Amino acid sequence: MRQDRRDDAVFNRHSSLRPAVMKSRNLLLWLLIGLVLAPLSASATCRLPIPDGGDETYIPSRANVFGNIQRVELPYVFVIDGQTHHLEKISISKITEIYSVYGGDGPLSELKPKLQVWVWFANCKRPKEGFPNAAYFQIFSTDPTDRARLDREGRIVSVPPR
Question: Is the pTM of the predicted complex or chain greater than 0.90?
Answer without folding.
Answer: no
